[in-house]
Amino acid sequence: QLQLQESGPGLVKPSETLSLTCTVSGGSISSSSYYWGWIRQPPGKGLEWIGSIYYSGNTYYNPSLKSRVTISVDTSKNQFSLKLSSVTAADTAVFYCARREFGSTWLPFDYWGQGILVTVSS
Amino acid sequence: EIVLTQSPGTLSLSPGERATLSCRASQSVSRNYLAWFQQKPGQAPRLLIYGASSRATGVPDRFSGSGSGTDFTLTISRLEPEDFAVYYCQQYGNSPPHTFGGGTKVEIK
């Protein structure tokens, strides 16, 4: 059974860089059939797609965050990571990692991590 | 960017009733790449419907999706106690950003 697990600091200071890692177990991140993504959800609010990455390193980002976001992959560790720079209180959210499948057709995120709350505060 | 507008914001219904949730897109969703997710408090979203009308693995058949272009609907034929949650639509076509709607909360009346 595929599992995704987010990890990283739960508290980040304003203006610093938020760094999270998603560890994939029960499957290979290097599979040619999947993209891996990050989604966030501010407390009590809706979902926002941040960006996605392929095992080869191909990425695409939400234009609203693109200047501050970097997503990378480490196939040797079966992990992918998120960096969000110059954070403010508005970046406080639960961050989810997830998987989506593609082939002759695209599918949405079907496996999600449990989420990790990151608070931006001094 | 495609903006998804969900309505109503809150739906107050009793168990056994039918729920009809709407998701309207600001422009046509390519290839009907429209998904519905269910989210309960403290949990990650769960995929219910993809391709506007295909049920994900393990999703009960009381959940159904319909629509095309810019207008989509999620229907829960008979609400079970475990169905009271927040529902989000998302367009996931090959042109990012893959936006989500603002959500509809289905609450017990």
SSE arrangement:
The complex is a heterodimer of chains A (122) and B (109).
Chain A: E1 3-7, E2 11-12, E3 18-25, E4 34-41, E5 48-54, E6 59-61, E7 69-74, E8 79-84, E9 93-102, E10 106-112, E11 116-120
Parallel strand pairs in A: 2-11
Antiparallel strand pairs in A: 1-3, 3-8, 4-5, 4-9, 5-6, 7-8, 9-10, 9-11
Chain B: E1 4-7, E2 10-13, E3 19-25, E4 34-39, E5 46-50, E6 54-55, E7 63-68, E8 71-76, E9 86-91, E10 104-108
Parallel strand pairs in B: 2-10
Antiparallel strand pairs in B: 1-3, 3-8, 4-5, 4-9, 5-6, 7-8, 9-10
Structural class label of chain A: mainly beta
Q: Over all CA atoms, what is the radius of gyration of chain B?
A: 13 Å
Level of helix content of chain B? Answer: under 10%
- The oligomeric status of these chains comes to heterodimer
Euclidean distance between termini CA atoms of chain A? 39 Å
Most extensive interface: A-B, 24 and 26 residues
Number of helices of chain B: 0
Count the strands of chain A? Answer: 11
Order of helices and strands of chain B: EEEEEEEEEE
Gyration radius from CA atoms of chain A, angstroms: 14 Å
* Largest sheet: number of strands, sense, barrel closure of chain B: 6 strands, mixed
Topology order of chain A in helix (H) and strand (E) letters = EEEEEEEEEEE
Query: Helix content range of the residues of chain A, please?
Result: under 10%
Are there runs of chain B of 5+ residues with pLDDT below 50, and where? none
Distance from N terminus to C terminus of chain B (CA atoms, Å) equals 35 Å
Please indicate the percent range of residues of chain A in DSSP E strands (runs of 2 or more). over 45%
Biggest sheet overview of chain A = 7 strands, mixed
Global mean pLDDT of chain A: 96
Give the percentage of residues in beta strands of chain B. Answer: over 45%
Number of strands of chain B: 10
Instruction: Tell me, briefly, the overall form of chain A.
Output: globular
